[in-house]
Backbone:
């Protein structure tokens, strides 16, 4: 899968729903790691941990609620700049 947080998380969620818990949880963790401020994702992953019988991980995830990371990486800035430029060019 690409290094896209939502893609990883959503595919992981589907895996969990289909009963492939370990593979799904791995993908959900990967997605949440890239977007730790997504509370809904944290809740879904916590539920997946519960389904897998890992109540300790579920509880830890529910109590650890990180603040959003407001630092922008050079890659994120470049991607944003490219998207803005492309959108601006299309509107002309």
Residues:
């Amino acid at each position: 899968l690409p290094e896209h947080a939502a893609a990883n998380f959503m595919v992981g969620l589907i895996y969990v729903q289909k009963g492939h818990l370990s593979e799904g949880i791995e993908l959900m963790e990967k997605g949440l790691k890239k977007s730790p401020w997504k509370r809904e994702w944290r809740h879904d992953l916590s539920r997946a941990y519960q389904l897998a019988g890992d109540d300790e991980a579920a509880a830890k995830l529910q109590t650890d609620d990180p603040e959003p990371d407001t630092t922008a990486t050079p890659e994120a800035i470049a991607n944003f700049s490219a998207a803005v430029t492309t959108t601006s060019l299309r509107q002309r």
